Amino acid sequence: MHGFALNVNSNLAHFNHIVPCGIAAEDKSVTSMEQELEKTIDMEEVKATIKKQFAILFEFEYATASIA
């Protein structure tokens, strides 16, 4: 099984100690949304957007929990 990783506001220095996703070339590296957009990103907004887009892409609706 596979998943995906999205570096939002990650400390990218940790990636200096591993070879992430097989990226071993000197001219390649990982990045984050924070680094690319040059601002701190609201994690709850990212979660909500990913959840919404997954539902659209995979054509499903999230079940709502009923309160007993």
Radius of gyration: 16 Å
> Major sheet, described briefly?
none
- The run of helices and strands is HH
The 3D shape can be described as elongated
Helix count, DSSP H or I runs of 4 or more residues: 2
Mean pLDDT: 89
Strand content of the residues, in percent? under 5%
What is the number of strand segments? 0
Classify the helix fraction into a percent range.
25-40%
Distance between the termini: 35 Å
Structural class: mainly alpha
Note poorly predicted spans: none
Question: What's a concise summary of this model?
Answer:
The protein has 68 residues and is mainly alpha-helical. 29% of the residues lie in helices and 0% in strands.
Describe this structure in words.
It is a single chain. The chain has 68 residues and is mostly helical. 29% of the residues lie in helices and 0% in strands.
Key terms:
single chain; mainly alpha
Record the SSE blueprint.
Layout: H1 33-37, H2 43-57
